[in-house]
Every structure is written in C-alpha cells, then in structure tokens.
Specification:
The structure is a single chain. The chain is mainly beta. The protein has one domain: SH3 type barrels (Roll), CATH 2.30.30. Helix content is 7%, strand content 39%. The protein contains one helix and five strands; from the N terminus they run βββββα. The chain has a five-stranded antiparallel β-sheet, with no helix packed on it. A hairpin with a 5-residue loop joins strand 3 and strand 4. The longest helix has 5 residues. It is globular and about 40 Å long. 12% of the residues are buried.
Length: 75
C-alpha cells in the first residue's frame, strides 16, 4: 500500500540538508503540492509558529508522521 502525501500533512525529514540548516528528523508541514505530487513545499516553523524555512522537497526526502489516538491514550 502506497502512502500518499497530502496538503497539511505533518512530515519529518529523512535526510540532512545542511545548506538550509535542516537535519534528519526535523518536522514540517506540507503547504503546497508541486508538479502533480512529484515535489512538496514544506514549511518548517519554530515553537511560536514563525516560519524559518520553506522549500520544495521530493517525496523520498520526507516521511508522513501519523498520530494514533489509541496508542496515545495508553501512554
């Protein structure tokens, strides 16, 4: 089953991007679908909601994060 990336999905970087001061594991939000899903504009924000980087990324550079309410209730 293929996991499709959608607008407003929360994603994590799978790669380091030192030229943008972004590192594997950093979390961002998909704010635009580019080239029919061949790339995605991902916005990275600080704890106050201020964007510090926004760039286009390929699907192989990011992974969608999922929140499972059932698991969260058992923590």
């Amino acid at each position: 089953m293929r996991n499709f990336i959608k607008l407003l999905d929360v994603v994590a970087l799978k790669v380091d991007l030192p030229e943008y001061n972004l590192w594997r594991g950093q979390v961002g939000t998909v704010v635009e679908i580019l080239a029919g899903g061949a790339a995605f504009e991902v916005e990275f924000s600080d704890r106050n909601g201020r964007t510090y980087e926004s760039l286009g990324l390929r699907p192989d550079q990011i992974m969608v994060l999922h929140y499972d309410l059932k698991v969260a209730r058992n923590i």
